[in-house]
Specification:
Blueprint lengths: L8 H11 L6 H23 L19 H20 L3 E2 L5 E3 H4 L21 E3 L4 H10 L5 E10 L13 E10 L6 H16 L5 E7 H11 L6 H8 L7 H11 L4 H11 L2 E2 L1 H8 L2 H4 L2 H19 L6 E4 L12 E7 L16 E7 L3 H5 L8 E6 L1 H15 L10 E4 L6 H13 L4 E2 L8 H11 L3 E4 L2 H6 L1 E6 L5 E5 L3 H11 L1
Parallel strand pairs: 1-4, 6-8, 12-13, 12-14
Antiparallel strand pairs: 2-3, 4-5, 5-11, 6-9, 7-8, 9-10, 10-11, 14-15, 15-16
Helix pairs in contact: 1-2, 3-6, 3-15, 6-13, 7-13, 8-9, 9-10, 11-13
Keywords: Aminoacyl-tRNA synthetase, ATP-binding, Ligase, Nucleotide-binding, Protein biosynthesis
Organism: Galeopterus variegatus
EC number: 6.1.1.21
């Protein structure tokens, strides 16, 4: 039987009121009272013994948390990327994380099945954005913008099978740069390739190569090889897998799964296994069948012009004309490109080297904005996307291999004391440093031990410590200590901020 002394006060009050009722109501009152007591006891027992959650605590498949150490590395990568975008005159833009489903439909070819659809919450069918390109095109059409150079850093979502060890996730960050507007041929395209080179060189990832092709050349090859036009996009999607699969497997997919005639697949194979520089462009001009295809000829002429500009920009040796590059997304209309590393990321001893695929990609999409415009007005566009997650994976592997440590804060100065009852003086001092714009910390204790404070500075990589005690207070000075050398000097209180700023500027 439960102990009545543990019952809440309200339950006792209800019980007492029932006992004081007239006799003829005693019977029903007793029943009611018993019910209330039982209910109160049950409720009390349920609150004191809550059930533990019956689930595994984890992040959803294909997502992850980023630790403070990882966020430092990530921010450094993003700083390199965004500073380059700004250096080239781009302005920033943001769009919603989800779009109307109809806005995303039929823009990605076979990859449309990877779009995350959301539950109808108010009469609109919505989907999480698959990339940052389609929302940008929608923005241009909706706001009737004819010219814009923009960059966008944001998350996108794809419902695919994640490969975490290769930096592939269902939720990931993209960094896009795009030039929208009618300009002379290949000038914006050349700048996009220059930006890719600057970013990949700045991140010091090792040797890389940018593969270029043109969707008009790809379509021209399909046409002269006998691919039905209705199968162009499907076959294009298969060719796009040549960076992950051998030609034999891609050929099998085209023939067995997509119904292409074997002899047609073989003719395609003669082309898509070719790669080289501007000399290959000239060689394709000599291909009588390909050069007679109007679209392919336009693509070859643009690529020839592009290589001229790339030579002037000093990056032609980093670019290869690769006929296997197809870029399976439906919206590409002209030049396409993709950057790959020429070496695998550093692995721990005994592990097999892993390929992370492309680390940047993009191309021209002249028809996408017109798909959203009610009158079909076209705004030519070209852009690129930096593969932040894959780059982040490479940098992480390299840091692990070389045992590099990461500072998780930017604290420059620590306020310490060797004595008790000096919290007030520490607070006055730290406020003075904060007001001067100096990044400063102290321990949240009334009477911390000096050794504990100094150990904290060493562990966190804080370069300077200011120490205040009774002697310093009496003499009107502050001790300034270098954590690395452990040297201390006495500085007049009024000169402290200037001395700290001088030291920080010199470091």
């Amino acid at each position: 039987m439960p102990q009545l002394g543990l019952l809440p006060r309200r339950t006792w009050a209800a019980l007492l009121s029932q006992l004081l009722r007239p006799p003829r109501a005693a019977c029903t009152g007793a029943v009611s009272c018993h019910s209330q007591v039982a209910e109160a006891v049950l409720t009390s027992q349920m609150k004191s013994h809550p059930e533990k959650p019956n689930f595994i605590i984890k992040t959803p498949k294909g997502t992850r948390d980023l630790s403070p150490q990882q966020m430092v590395v990530r921010e450094k990568i993003l700083d390199v990327v965004v500073s380059c975008f700004k250096r080239h005159g781009a302005k920033t833009l943001d769009t919603p994380a989800f779009e109307l489903t109809e806005m995303l439909a039929e823009k990605y070819g076979e990859e449309s099945g990877l779009i995350y659809d959301l539950k109808d919450q108010g009469g609109e069918l919505l989907s999480l954005r698959y990339d940052l390109t389609v929302p940008f095109a929608r923005y241009l059409a909706m706001n009737k913008v004819k010219k814009m150079k923009r960059y966008h850093v944001g998350k996108v979502w794809r419902r695919e099978s994640p490969t975490i060890v290769q930096g592939r996730y269902r939720e990931f960050c993209q960094c896009d740069f795009d030039i929208a507007g009618q300009f002379d041929p290949m000038i914006p395209d050349a700048e996009c390739l220059k930006i890719m080179c600057e970013i990949l060189s700045g991140l010091q990832l090792g040797d890389f190569l940018i593969k270029v092709n043109d969707r008009r050349i790809v379509d021209g090859i399909f046409a002269i090889c006998g691919v039905p036009e209705s199968k162009f996009r499907a076959i294009c999607s298969s060719i796009d897998k040549l960076d992950k699969m051998c030609w034999k497997d891609v050929r099998h997919e085209m023939v067995a799964k997509k119904g292409l005639a074997p002899e047609v697949a073989d003719r395609i194979g003669d082309y898509v296994q070719c790669h080289g520089g501007v000399s290959l462009v000239e060689q394709m001009f000599q291909d009588l069948r390909l050069s007679q295809n109007k679209k392919a000829l336009e693509g070859l002429e643009d690529l020839k012009l592009l290589f001229e500009y790339l030579t002037l920009l000093g990056i032609a040796e980093k670019v290869s004309f690769d006929l296997s590059l197809a870029r399976g997304l439906n919206y590409y209309t002209g030049v396409i490109y993709e950057a790959v590393l020429l070496q695998s990321p550093v692995q721990a001893e005994g592990e097999q080297p892993l390929s992370v695929g492309s680390v940047a990609a993009g191309g021209r999409y002249d028809g996408l904005v017109g798909m959203f415009d009610p009158k079909g007005h076209m705004v030519p566009c070209v852009g690129l996307s930096i593969g932040v997650e894959r780059i982040f994976y490479i940098v992480e592997q390299r840091m692990k291999s070389f045992g590099e440590k990461v500072r998780t804060t930017e604290t420059q100065v620590f306020v310490a004391t060797p004595q008790k009852n000096f919290l007030q003086e520490r607070l006055k001092l730290i406020a003075e440093l904060w007001d001067a714009g100096i990044k400063t910390e102290m321990l949240y204790k009334n009477n911390p031990k000096l050794l504990t404070q100094l150990h904290y500075c060493e562990n966190m990589g804080i370069p300077l410590v200011v120490i205040i005690g009774e002697q310093e207070l009496k003499e009107g000075v502050i001790k300034l200590r270098s954590v690395a050398s452990r040297e201390e000097v006495a500085i007049k209180r009024e000169n402290l901020v200037a001395e700290i700023q001088k030291r920080l500027s010199e470091s």
